[in-house]
Amino acid sequence: xxxxxxxxxxxxxxxxxxxxxxxxxxxxxxxxxxxxxxxxxxxxxxxxxxxxxxxxxxxxxxxxxxxxxxxxxxxxxxxxxxxxxxxxxxxxxxxxxxxxxxxxxxxxxxxxxxxxxxxxxxxxxxxxxxxx
Length: 132
Fold this sequence. Notes:
It is a single chain. By secondary structure, the chain is mainly alpha-helical. Helix 1 crosses helix 3 (49-91). It has one domain. The chain has helices at 2-22, 25-41, 49-91, 107-123. The longest helix is centred in the middle third of the chain and has 43 residues, at 49-91. It has 4 helices and no strands. The protein is elongated.
């Protein structure tokens, strides 16, 4: 159990650091410079297949890895948002607590709930703005 937790923690730290760094201005500028240097170097290599494959291979590898990294970050953010929303729902006495964990329902059930709340919203009179 300790090894699994340690490995999970290590992966969390690494993926979090990479996610944060990959969205930084430094990485964006470095990527732009890399592509610019690659384009400028084209005539010196007669636009050879090797020259072309360098960026194609590099971009394919980076894209492949980033897809999974971005998905991991989104999963973590999604879970955190759901926890916060569930806390808000469960703490408000007038809230419908059946909506806690609604994200686990099927798409068909969600569409039914959405229609129900759309009808409720349409039936309510709009509140008049408060005047001070």
